[in-house]
Amino acid sequence: MKESDDSNNNNNIRWSSKWEEDELPSPDELMPLSQSLITPDLALAFDISTNLTLQTPPLPPPPRPSVHHLSQPPLPPLIDPQPSDFADSSGELGSGGDEPARTLKRPRLVWTPQLHKRFVDAVAHLGIKNAVPKTIMQLMSVDGLTRENVASHLQKYRLYLKRVQGLSTGGCGANGGGAGAGDPVTDHLFASSPVPPHFLHPVRPSSDHYLPFVPVAALQQHHQMAAAHTRLQPPFQRPLAQFEHPFLSRAGQQPGYSVGALVHSQAQLYAEDLNMAHANGGRKVLTLFPSGDD
DNA sequence: ACTCCAATAT
DNA sequence: AATATTGGAG
C-alpha cells in the first residue's frame, strides 16, 4: 500500500527512419510488417534489462538508420522470477493444445505513435463500418496484438473523435467546451496522427461530395509467409542480422511461442526494436515499434 | 461469437 | 496517465 513512484518517465524511443510510405500498403501487399510483441515469458526473462536508459531525445538523432543497436542486453541474468508459479505447465490437458501463452498476462501494450498510426491507417482503409476490433487487428497484422488491445484502443479513440468533433462549430465558445472530459489537447497519442476526414463526419449530409474512399476488398487473409514472421522458430535459418538480438536463449527451450526481432531482410527501411521500459512501480511494459518519424 | 460502452481496476 | 478488465446490452 505504498506508492511512491515518481519519475515516471515515458521512455519512448523513436528513431527516425523512413517507415512505411505513409499509408498502409494496399491490402494486397500488406503483410510484411510485423512487429514483435514480446511474450510474457521473454519479458520476464529480460525484465531487468539493467540499463535501458534510452531516453527519448526531443529530436530523433540521425535519420540514419544505420545499425543502431542498442546496447546488447546482457540478458544473462535469466533470473527466473517465480519458479513455483504456474508458469509453464507444458503438460497441459489433452484438450486444447493451445499455445502456452494463455493464462499468462502479457505486459501492457504501449501504443507508440507509430503503432497508433498503423491503427488509424487500418481503420481508414477499412472504412468506419468494417472497422471493428477484430478486423482492425487483422489488418494491422501486428504480431502479438490482441483483439482486446485494439478494442480498448478503439474505444478510446472514438471518444477522442467525438471530442474533437464537438469541439468546434458553434459550441466552441459556449458551454460546448464542457464536453466533460479534461481537454488535454495533449491527447498526445491521438493527436499524433492526422485524423482522416471521413472519421469526423461519417457522411456529408447533403451537397458536397467527398472522396468515396474506395473500400478495398474486405478482408484478405494472407497467410503466405506470415508465419515466417509472426512466429519464428527457435532455430534461425538466417544468420543474425546486425539488428537482431540473440536473446531468445530462454524462449528457445520453451514450447510454444517465441519472439524475436526479425528484421525484414530486404528492407533497410524497417528496423524493429524491442524496448522495454519500466513504468511506475516496476511494472514492465513493452514498447514495440518500428522505426519511424512522426 | 462479437461489438459497444461505461465503469472500474491496475 | 495509459491500458486492461469487466459487465450489461444489442
Strand content: 5-15%
Helical fraction equals 10-25%
The structural class is: mainly alpha
How many helices? The count is 8
Residue-averaged pLDDT: 54
Low-confidence residue ranges: 1-22, 26-35, 47-96, 172-178, 207-279
Order of helices and strands: HEHHHHHHHEE
Biggest sheet strand line-up = 1-3-2
Beta-strand segment tally: 3
How would you describe the overall organization of this protein?
- It is built from eight helices and three strands; from the N terminus they run H-E-H-H-H-H-H-H-H-E-E.
- 24% of the residues lie in helices and 6% in strands.
- Helix 3 packs across helix 4.
- The two termini are 39 Å apart.
- It is mainly α and 294 residues long.
- Strand 2 and strand 3 form a beta hairpin.
- The radius of gyration is 21 Å and the shape is globular.
- The N terminus is likely disordered.
- The chain has a three-stranded mixed β-sheet, with no helix packed on it.
- The chain binds a DNA duplex (10 and 10 nucleotides) through strand 1 and helix 4.
- One of its GO terms (cellular component) is nucleus.
- Pfam families: Myb_DNA-binding.
